[in-house]
Amino acid sequence: MKKIEFASTEYGDLTGKTVDYNVLVNGNKPPLTSLKGAPKQVNNDFFCNSNNLQSLEYAPEYVDGHFNCRNNLLTSFKHAPKYIRRHFIADTNMVDDPIGDIIKYRIKAERYYVTIDDEVKQFSFEVIKDKYDEYEKMKSVTSKGFRTLLGLDK
């Protein structure tokens, strides 16, 4: 049976739960290597920064505050929450194309903090909204097929 790392924190196993408080496992000792056992929804902040996370698998799907995963070993934002009401703080990770990942994995937040060319950059959702919408349209075209979209398959 795979160890649930959250069970080693003060929170215990929160798998599938909704919590109404901050979940702060930042700088955990020993550092977390997985978010297995994390809640499904956090109606406040979720901080898992300064650990040894290589993946955001098991991260909450919804965070009604800030989601901070900065200073980990992430190479992708796959499995990040789909909706973050406040800030997605993910700088000082090793993601090659952080903006591309945000768009690809549909991470919607009020503001983003990422590392681009060894510099921390911040921007609002409004900055990427057009690219976000464009990606959605292209995804729709691919799933419907060009012939159907052009009205050739009736």
The profile of the biggest β sheet is: 9 strands, mixed
Spans where pLDDT lies below 50 across 5 or more residues:
none
- The level of helicity is 10-25%
Order of helices and strands: EEEEEEEHEEHH
Amino- and carboxy-terminal Cα gap: 52 Å
Please give the number of β-strands.
9
Structural class: alpha/beta
Report the principal-axis shape: globular
Give the C-alpha Rg. Answer: 17 Å
Overall mean pLDDT: 88
Q: Treating each run of at least 4 consecutive H or I residues as one helix, how many helices?
A: 3
Q: Work out the strand percent.
A: 15-25%
Keyword list:
154 residues; alpha/beta; nine-stranded mixed sheet; 3 helices; 22% strand; globular
Question: Would you spell out the secondary-structure blueprint of this structure?
Answer:
Layout: E1 18-19, E2 23-24, E3 41-42, E4 46-47, E5 62-63, E6 67-68, E7 83-89, H1 98-104, E8 108-116, E9 119-124, H2 125-144, H3 146-149
Parallel strand pairs: 1-3, 2-4, 3-5, 4-6, 5-7, 6-7, 7-8
Antiparallel strand pairs: 8-9
